[in-house]
Amino acid sequence: MTEDFTGQLRSLGLKNGDVVLVHSSMKALGTNRTSLEIINDIIAVIGPEGTLLVPALSYDNVTAEQPCFSVLKTEPCIGLIPRTFFHMDGVIRSVHPTHSVCAIGKYAIEMTSRHCVDETPVGPNSPFMKLPDYNGKILFIGDTVKSCTFMHGIEEIAKAPYTLKKERTRYFIEDENGIVTERDLIGHDFAGWKQEYQKIKGLLHYPDIKTGKVGQADCCLINAAALMEEAYKKFREDPYYFVSKLNE
Asked: Which pLDDT tens digit goes with each residue over 196-233?
């Protein structure tokens, strides 16, 4: 049987001109197609007027002990699709040592260019927090909702008490021109806490959340602005709603 991933993506609600951030599990797709082919399927659906964003997080290989980050050389540490996308021609990467985002398409430059001024990982100028401004969506391929980095930005806005470290880390950040800048930045903490972001599925209703299959993967497509509004309400009610104590 021929796999029609573009058709499944359209059935899920992805369409021409969309701005979409993708969290993905290649294993969940259950396909012989390559990561590059899957990326190109998404690009084919959103078209030249669309913008594709993929987290290029590097928190495992850029640490307080190894604080050097290169926007062109530091590999993402979170999976095959992010690593493949990072190496594609025309892809732009935002400048942050641990929480960068790669992008291609109409708004790629606009959405990535100011991340470098933020002092926190998912600050107001990060591509994550730009999503609501562009009517952006978040596509979860497989069981990846629990890894929703967008939620960290809402935690920062809501000043969730477990989110940020109290001390800064000095990073050495090399830009695309080879210029190295030293910056003292605030990192995420989460020590002793388990993230429970799967709870966001219970906050939203159609059409702000749409579910379906792509390949063999259970997927959902979420409106970022709606998620920001509803999650922020929950943080105001209970700042610990989206976490639980480890070992409980």
From this structure: 999 999 999 999 999 999 999 999 999 999 999 999 99
b/e code 202-221 from CB counts within 10 Å (16+ = b): ebbeeebbbeeebbebbbbb
Range of the domain at 25: 5-245
Task: Tally the domains of the chain.
Answer: 1
CB 204 within 8 A of CB 126: no
The two most distant CA atoms of the chain are separated, in Å, by: 55
* pTM more than 0.70: yes
Cβ(200)–Cβ(222) below 8 Å: yes
pLDDT at 92 over 90: yes
End-to-end C-alpha distance for the chain, whole angstroms: 46
What CA–CA distance (Å, rounded) separates 161 from 76? 28
Q: How far apart are CA 19 and CA 136, in angstroms?
A: 5
pLDDT digits (tens, 9 = 90+) for 78-90: 999 999 999 999 9
Q: What is the DSSP letter of 75?
A: P
Cβ-based burial of 10 (10 A; exposed 0-12, middle 13-18, buried ≥19) = middle
